[in-house]
Write a structure and sequence with these properties.
- It contains 3 helices and 6 strands; from the N terminus they run βααβββββα.
- It has one domain: Hotdog Thioesterase (Thiol Ester Dehydrase, Chain A, Roll).
- It is α+β, with helices and mostly antiparallel strands.
- Strands 1, 2, 3, 4, 5 and 6 form a 6-stranded antiparallel beta sheet that branches.
- Helices cover 24% and strands 41% of the residues.
Length: 133
Amino acid sequence: MENRIFKYEMTIKEFHLDTFGHVNNAAYLQIYEEARWEFITHNGYGLDKIKETGLGPVILEINLRFIRELHLRKKITIHSQTTEYNSRIGTIKQWITNSEGKICSDTEMKIGLFDTHRRKLVQPTKEWLDAIK
């Protein structure tokens, strides 16, 4: 499955850092989440759509790697791409590149579409698939 790659740029700020002066591991998860929200919102499936339909994304599993250090006040790009979606579970890959284009971190996660009323995973809707492919 060759789906589009969504790119989101941001700058590493002081609040991303830990006492060692590098990006805290939990901050990576927030950075990746911010990029995913931009990805789906840009493609018509933001919070308003989730509230309207009662259907929204959930992460079921995540594998996160740290490859190169991110530096304060440096621009980064977060790339997001859905690589597969079988039945109720899909896979999204994300990676962060620095201003030189080098990969600094990557993640692969299993996701699903969650029915907030019935509190369970459901089959992906056409609208959801269109937003993430």
